[in-house]
Amino acid sequence: MHAYRTGFVTLATVAALSAACGGAAPAAPAAQKTAPPASPSRSRSPAGQALAGKTIVIDPGHNGGNAAHPKEINRQVDVITGRKPCNTTGTETDAGYPEHAFTWDVAKRLKPILEKMGAKVVFTRPDDKGVGPCVTERAAIGNEARADAVLSIHGDGAAPGGHGFHVILPGLVAGHNDAIVKPSRRLGVAIRNAYHSGTGLPYSTYTAVDGLQTRTDLGGLNLSTRPAVFIECGNMRNRGDAAKMSDPAFRERMAQSLAGGLRKFLG
């Protein structure tokens, strides 16, 4: 995981599906006219529409054009607790599979799963060919969408001896993100539990505690006014993690697991 770069991004949004209503209770047969009337069925969203009315912002880390525009992505931006590059190129596996392509693929797999549950899904970038946007802009996209949850997807570039995943939670930046610290932790726990269960990947062996880490140096979390977390889906420099992250079938499994965590938090 790294930071981001400025760019002109067209926000890709998808309209939420409408929840269906249950049918009315059948009339009582004539022989039972003296029986009490049946209670009317309650209207409710079917299981497939568990996220109807919810807006989820998915932030696929980095972007495919970042490496070719170092001046733009290295521009310093204010993240409240300091200044950081607008964006970065991200990491890659030893075989050259880049983080930006990994995060984009997982995000594309996650989107239709959430839409089938009725959610409106907003991306922070429309493709994997652009530059940026900056971390500050990505946070603003979630805020402006009034997201019920924001999930930033990444792959880590740690020492190759470490493996596993971890979820990054916003630490308190007093006067800025006070209102989202607690709900973001609930979101992070839900994502951690579902991802761990769904993928079988262990908690990170090289950082975090029980798969959770709190940070105050990330603009995407410091500047968010909506519940937000990052997930480092695995260590792309570790041979075992890299093999899984490079496998399309396993990336589908990752997306399904992340959807389960979002449903748990929002359901």
Structure notes:
It is a single chain. The chain has 267 residues and is an alpha/beta fold. Helices cover 30% and strands 16% of the residues. The protein is built from seven helices and nine strands. A seven-stranded mixed sheet has the order 1-5-2-6-9-7-8, with helices on both faces. Strands 3-4 form a two-stranded antiparallel sheet. A hairpin with a 4-residue loop joins strand 3 and strand 4. The longest helix has 19 residues. The radius of gyration is 21 Å and the shape is globular. The N terminus is likely disordered.
Topology, element by element:
Layout: E1 13-14, E2 55-60, H1 70-73, E3 76-78, E4 83-85, H2 99-116, E5 120-123, H3 135-144, E6 149-156, E7 166-170, H4 181-199, E8 212-215, H5 219-222, E9 228-235, H6 239-245, H7 248-266
Parallel strand pairs: 2-5, 2-6, 6-9, 7-8
Antiparallel strand pairs: 1-5, 3-4, 7-9
Helix pairs in contact: 2-7, 4-7
